[in-house]
Specification:
The protein has 115 residues and is mainly β. The chain is 0% helix and 53% strand. It has no helices and ten strands.
């Protein structure tokens, strides 16, 4: 049997949960258009794959904020504990793979000041 999933809405949407992992899609929404906060997952890496459109993966490194202009089809694995966020264009479609139990109880968020 084959299950087929598609998501045409806005924002983040989990589509497949299986045992310990999850596959989700991230599409444009106002929450992903500017860098207002960073988050980090305490129990899992998070994989991003740009399928269509444009996106920038933002990480905080020891020397400051770094922006990774994503390329379609490349796999970007953000390691557990790394502060990050993603900014997408209205035509963007991003595939996300993470632990199934990733959520507010094991994710920290930090709001960035508007300096």
């Amino acid at each position: 049997m084959v299950e087929i999933y598609e998501y045409k809405g806005e924002g983040y949407k989990p589509l497949v949960d299986y045992e310990s992992w999850r596959v989700a899609v991230l599409r444009y929404s106002k929450g992903f258009t500017g860098l207002k906060e960073l988050e980090r997952h305490l129990e899992t890496d998070e994989v991003f794959v740009l399928l269509t459109g444009e996106a920038a993966l933002i990480t905080e490194e020891s020397d400051g904020i770094r922006e990774w202009k994503m390329e379609c089809g490349k796999i970007y694995n953000v390691l557990k504990g790394v502060w990050h966020n993603i900014i997408v264009t209205p035509d963007a479609n991003v595939l996300i793979v993470e632990n199934r139990n990733t959520g507010t109880e094991n994710t920290e968020r930090r709001h960035l000041s508007a300096e």
